Amino acid sequence: MRPLDLGDRWVLPTTDPADTLRTPLTCLDAATGAVVWAYPIELVETTARSGTDVLAATAHGEVVAMDPAAGTCRWRWVADRPFRSVDLLVTRGRVYVVGDDTLFILDAATGRPEGDPVTSAGGGPAADEDTLYLRIGDELTAWALP
């Protein structure tokens, strides 16, 4: 996984040598490599940006939004089950989480779910300026973004 480049800092999951399941989300000073902060979380699968926040999704079905300056958690959402795979897409104030075969839509500012989950979703979501694209079953489905 590539680190999120925040200019003067990078954010990425790192491995705790004492516990290989623990992959703290770690913020490093880009110039020195020094650890700025580390947030204890397990099995980070993917990261994304949402405005100034850093998002991380885990195999445990958890998504967190972090303040990259302070290293504090702004919000946390947990699915009703763990994920074998997870993708994130952030656009227009929403976080689109595809965990296994289900699409969850979260408010990017609060982490609150919006609407019902969409099942039979496959692969990572994609979007252009006006449309969200997602494979549902064997078809590519397009939704107008709010």
Automatic annotation (TrEMBL):
Signal peptide limits: none
Domain of life the protein comes from: Bacteria
Start and end residues of each Pyrrolo-quinoline quinone repeat domain: 25-112
Gene3D superfamilies xrefs: YVTN repeat-like/Quinoprotein amine dehydrogenase
Name recorded for this polypeptide: Pyrrolo-quinoline quinone repeat domain-containing protein
Taxonomic source organism: Pilimelia terevasa
